[in-house]
Amino acid sequence: MANKQQKIQDLENQIESDRILSGDGTNCTRLATKQLRLARLYRQTGDMAKASELMADAKKTLDDPLCPNSREKIRLQNAMAYMGMGTPGAQQQSINSMMMNRGQRMPAIYRFAGILILFVGYGILYISEFLGILTSTTEFGIGIFVVFGLSIAVSTILRGRYMRSINSGPVMVNTGGMDPATAVEKLESKLREDQSSIDPKRILDAAQTELALASLYYQSKDMDKAAQALDGAQKFLNDPICEQGFERERLLRTVEQMKGMISRNQQ
C-alpha cells in the first residue's frame, strides 16, 4: 500500500507539472494518460470518487479545443467511450477501433483450406480431362461447380469450428510439470508484477494471469477463489486504458463462460 501511495503522489506531481507546461494543448494526450493511470490507482485503493473525478478530468483534457487530433488521442477517447465516458457517436468509433486492432491470427489451415481445395480440385479436373476420363464439357462444368461448392463448405466448417474452439471452455494452463500450488504461486507473482505496471499492455497480461489462476482454482474445486480471480480479470478488462481488440473481447467471453460454470458447480 505504501508503494501504491508513493506512485499516486508521483503521478499527482507529474500531472500538476504537465498542466503548467501544456497550456497550448501540445501535451494533452500525455496528461490524459497520466490522469487515467492515476484514476486506476485510486480505484485500486477503493477511492472511487477520486477515480471518477480524474476520469472526468481526462475527458476534459482530451475535449479541449487546443488538444490536436492524433492516433493516441483517438485511442484514449475510444477507451473512455467504451466505458461510457465518451461523446455521442464515439461508441461506434470504439467498435471500429476494436475491429482494426491487433488480435489473435487464425492458423493458415483455416484461412487457406478453401483455396487449397480449389487448386487441387481444378488440377484433378484438368488432368482427368487430359487423360480422357472426363469426355464432355458438361461433366467438366459439373466438376467445377462441385469443387467450388466443396471448397466453400469446408472453409466455412473449419472457420466455424476454429471460432467455437477459441470462444469456449476455461483457460487451459500448462503448468510445465509443476504442482498446482507452485503454479498458483508463480502466477500470483506474475500478477503482482503486472499490477505494479501502468502500461496498458500489462493490464491485458494481468487479466490473462487472473484467468489462468481462475482455471487452476476451478480445477482444484476452489470455486470461491476461482470466482474472485474472475472478478479480478473482469476488472482489468473493463479498465479504460486496457487495450481494445479481439483478444480483450475473447477474454471477456471466457470470463462469462467460466462464471457460468462456477455457478452451476455451486448449485
UniProtKB/TrEMBL annotation:
Keyword terms: Membrane, Transmembrane, Transmembrane helix
Listed transmembrane segments: 108-128, 140-158
Name of the protein this chain belongs to: Tetratricopeptide repeat protein
UniProt organism field: Oxyplasma meridianum
